[in-house]
Write a structure and sequence with these properties.
The chain has about 450 residues and is an alpha/beta fold. It contains 21 helices and 16 strands. The protein has a 4-stranded parallel beta sheet, covered by helices on one side. It starts with a strand and ends in an 11-residue tail after the last strand.
C-alpha cells in the first residue's frame, strides 16, 4: 500500500493508515496532546493527498482498533451492508468525497453509501472536506427515527428541553420545563442531567417529568440522563421513561471506562421497548464528543475525529432515537478555541448522518476555552442549515448545574424563524392548541410558562 507522496519538493512517508488519518486531520489541540498531529500545514496537506488515494477497502481493512481486540470494531464491521460495501470497496476516498457532493448522488444513494462504510471511511471523507462541504453534504440527507413522535423529517428543527437544576428540586425543574415549552422547546425530548444519580432520585425526577407530560398531554419523550444501569433499575421499579440514555465512546476500552458494554445497551433497548410507551422502535439516546477516548487513555493512537466517527458506527447498531455530540463540553485540551469547536461540530454532524444515525448537537463551550456565545450561535446557524435534527434548550443558554454554556430557549425559536423551520408536527399542533404558536410562528404568549397553569 502506498503511504507516501512527494510534495513541495519533499517526500512524506507515513507508517500506517492510522497515522495518515491522524495527520490529515484539521488542527485539534487533542491530537497535539496525544502526540499524533501533523508537524505543520505541509505535512497535513501531504497526509490529505495520501488519504485521498486510499480506497474504501484500505480503510475498512485497517480499523483504528483491531477486530479481535475491540467490540466496537467488530460491531461496525459485522453490521456492514456487504452488497453496498462491495460496490464501494475499490473507490478512493477522494472519489467518494466528490461523489457525495455531486449532483449525481441523490439522498437514497447517500443512505446506501452509509450502510456500506465503516466509521474510518466517514472520518476520512470528512477530513477531505471544507466546512461548507460538511454543511452541504449533511444537508442532502435526512435521518428520521420514531419513539413517541418522529424526529428528523424535512423542514423540522427540534430541541431538547434541558431543565437542569443544581439540586434536582422538582419545583425548580417544573418551572424551567413550563418556560421552555412556551418557547416551543422540548419536542425532541424533555431530558434532565441529574445531580443525584441514585435510583430513588432518578425515579422521582422521571415521575415529575411524566406528570407534566401527562397533565398537559404533551406529544414528546421524557428521559433522565443518569447512568444506564441506574435508569434500568428505576424502570424495573416502576419509574416511567420513554428513552434510556448513555454516553458512549469509540472503543471498547473507552466504553468500559464508562461502565458499559454492547450487551448492556442491548439489554436497555429491550427493557425500554418492553414498557410499551414508544410508538416506534427507537428508544435509546446516546451522547458523544471528540476527546473522550483520549481522556480514558482508550484512543489507541487514533485521532479524535476517527474515534468520534466510531461512536456513530457503534450507535447505529442500537437504532437510537437521539444521538448528539456535546461538541465543546470537555474543554480546550481537546478543542482549543471556537474555530476548532465549529469545525468539530460540522464534522461530527456530517459523519453521524452519513453513517445513518439521527444527529443533533449540543453546540456548547466551557468558560475556560477561547469561545463565546456568538461562536456557538454561528455553529448553530451552520448546523441548522446542514439539517441538524435538534439542539439543546436551556434557560438563557447557561447550565447552572453542569457549568457550561449552550443554546437557550430563544435560539431554537430564532433559528426556526430564520430558516423557515418548524417543530415536530404533533408538537406544533400542541403549541397551537395551547396558544404558543400560530400561522407558523410564536405568539405573544411565548416565554410565559404560567399560561399552562
Amino acid at each position: 500500500m502506498k503511504l507516501k507522496t512527494k510534495l513541495f519538493g519533499d517526500t512524506y512517508q507515513f507508517d500506517s493508515v492510522k497515522e495518515v488519518l491522524a495527520k490529515a486531520n484539521e488542527p485539534k489541540s487533542g491530537d497535539v496532546l496525544a502526540g499524533i498531529a501533523a508537524r505543520d500545514a505541509k505535512e497535513r496537506v501531504a497526509a490529505k493527498v495520501v488519504l485521498s488515494e486510499l480506497t474504501v477497502k484500505d480503510l475498512t481493512e485497517n480499523p483504528a482498533v483491531p477486530y479481535d481486540r475491540d467490540e466496537v470494531t467488530r460491531i461496525c464491521i459485522d453490521d456492514l451492508d456487504r452488497e453496498a460495501y462491495n460496490r464501494l470497496a475499490g473507490m478512493t476516498i477522494g472519489e467518494l468525497r466528490d461523489y457525495i457532493l455531486s449532483d449525481l448522488c441523490e439522498e437514497k444513494d447517500l443512505h446506501t453509501i452509509g450502510r456500506g462504510l465503516v466509521p474510518e471511511c466517514a472520518a476520512a471523507v470528512a477530513k477531505l472536506m471544507g466546512n461548507m462541504d460538511l454543511v452541504y453534504g449533511a444537508s442532502r440527507l435526512r435521518v428520521a427515527a420514531t419513539c413517541c413522535t418522529t424526529i428528523g423529517e424535512a423542514g423540522v428543527l427540534a430541541s431538547r428541553l434541558q431543565p437542569n437544576h443544581p439540586s434536582d428540586d422538582p419545583d425548580g425543574i417544573t418551572a424551567s420545563v413550563l418556560e421552555g415549552l412556551s418557547y416551543g422547546v422540548g419536542d425532541a425530548v424533555i431530558g434532565l442531567n441529574p445531580v443525584d444519580d441514585r435510583t430513588e432520585s432518578v425515579s422521582a425526577v422521571l415521575k415529575r417529568l411524566d406528570e407534566i407530560k401527562q397533565k398537559y398531554d404533551i406529544p414528546t419523550q421524557i428521559c433522565v440522563l443518569a447512568h444506564v444501569t441506574t435508569q434500568m433499575d428505576a424502570v424495573r421499579k416502576g419509574a416511567p421513561t420513554d428513552l434510556i440514555f448513555q454516553s458512549v465512546t469509540g472503543s471498547q476500552k473507552g466504553n468500559e471506562s464508562f461502565g458499559i458494554s454492547a450487551a448492556m445497551l442491548e439489554e436497555a433497548r429491550h427493557l425500554a421497548l418492553s414498557t410499551g410507551r414508544a410508538k416506534g422502535q427507537n428508544v435509546l439516546y446516546f451522547e458523544t464528543g471528540q476527546g473522550s477516548e483520549l481522556s480514558a487513555d482508550a484512543h489507541f493512537g487514533a485521532d479524535q475525529v476517527t474515534m468520534e466517527a466510531r461512536c456513530y458506527g457503534f450507535s447505529r447498531h442500537f437504532a437510537p432515537f437521539l444521538v448528539n455530540t456535546v461538541v465543546g463540553f470537555i474543554g480546550p485540551e481537546y478543542l482549543f478555541d471556537s474555530k476548532q469547536v465549529i469545525r468539530a461540530g460540522l464534522e461530527d454532524h456530517f459523519m453521524g448522518k452519513l453513517l445513518g444515525v439521527p444527529m443533533g448537537c449540543d453546540a456548547c463551550y466551557t468558560n475556560h476555552m477561547r469561545a463565546d456565545q456568538n461562536d456557538i450561535e454561528d455553529l448553530a446557524v451552520l448546523l441548522a442549515s446542514a439539517g441538524c435534527n435538534y439542539f439543546m434548550g436551556i434557560p438563557h443558554g447557561d447550565d447552572v448545574m453542569l457549568g457550561y454554556q449552550t443554546t437557550g430557549y430563544h435560539e431554537t425559536a430564532t433559528l426556526r424563524r430564520l430558516l423557515r423551520l418548524r417543530p415536530i408536527p404533533e408538537f406544533e399542533a400542541w403549541l397551537q392548541k395551547r396558544g404558543f404558536w400560530e400561522n407558523g410562528k410564536p405568539t405573544r404568549l411565548t416565554g410565559d410558562g404560567s399560561a399552562l397553569l
